[in-house]
Amino acid sequence: MLLAVDVGNTDTKLGFFTVAANGSLELDRTWRVQTQRARTADEFGVLFRTLFGVAGLPTDAVAHIVVSSVVPQTDRALAEGARRYFNCEALFFSAATQTLIDVTTERPKELGSDLLAAAIAAKAQFGTPIVVVGFGTATSFGAVSRDGEYLGAALAPGIRISIDALVERTAKLPQVALEAPNGPIGRDTVSALQAGIVYGFVGQTEALVARMRHAIGEDARVVATGGLADFIAKHTQVIDAVEPHLVLHGLARWFASRS
């Protein structure tokens, strides 16, 4: 029925939604592929059809496509691919195209569509006030007030790009697996790197969440999303829930609101 596409700087996430018995949209299947800025309309079409084929889903099951994109270079090709291979117009979600949540930042139209879609889903599923933490290319902390307004965000370098930058700038440090060490004191180079990375990002999460709760309400819930949300959530008590597909759910809610 609905294909939701979240184009991020590193990965593109796709979710196929079907209509449940109660009439709501239900996430049936998800995929994650690498974002490539130079991908053509035909490449998008072939890629999506291949994913559907491997999953045993007919492409004509897609009647609508909604897109959140923070990579403008892909938008034209993605829209053309939707027309050519799915015979439908892609609807692009942005702060300017939605009315589900009030945005009270200084420049609302500049707010990333992924941050906003995640906030819409978090607000609907968990209530307000709420802090939405996204572990992606950047680590984002979005604040939604008790009145349901998107107040703003804090942005920090993401976990993987931080690791890559550290290894690239230091001649003797090896690339390491993202695993938790036995404790905060590394006894060799690899465990020292892992301790700094894991507990450093846990500390960052706890500190920013504490400051945001002080600003919007100490009872604010915290929901984490993104590919590394589960990993960080295992090492801190401040994350109340993990929803890896929060942006896709936000896009589905926006689409349903248009009907």
Structural descriptors:
about 260 residues; alpha/beta; Nucleotidyltransferase, domain 5; 2 domains; six-stranded mixed sheet
Layout of secondary structure:
Elements: E1 2-7, E2 11-19, E3 25-34, H1 41-54, E4 64-69, H2 75-86, E5 90-92, E6 102-103, H3 113-126, E7 130-135, E8 138-144, E9 149-157, H4 159-169, H5 189-216, E10 221-225, H6 229-233, E11 241-242, H7 246-258
Parallel strand pairs: 1-4, 4-5, 6-9, 7-10, 10-11
Antiparallel strand pairs: 1-2, 2-3, 7-8, 8-9
Helix pairs in contact: 1-2, 3-7
Structural class estimated from helices and strands: alpha/beta
CATH class of the largest domain: Alpha Beta
User: How many β strands by DSSP?
Assistant: 11
Query: pLDDT below 50 for ≥5 consecutive residues: which ranges?
Result: none
Number of helices: 7
Radius of gyration: 19 Å
C-alpha geometry: globular
Mean pLDDT: 93
Strand content: 25-35%
Helix content bin: 25-40%
Please give the domain count.
Answer: 2
Sheet with most strands: 6 strands, mixed
Biggest sheet strand order reads 6-9-8-7-10-11
CATH topology of the largest domain: Nucleotidyltransferase, domain 5
Question: What is the CA-CA span between the terminal residues?
Answer: 14 Å
Order of helices and strands: EEEHEHEEHEEEHHEHEH
CATH architecture of the largest domain: 2-Layer Sandwich
Query: CATH homologous superfamily of the largest domain, by name?
Result: ATPase, nucleotide binding domain
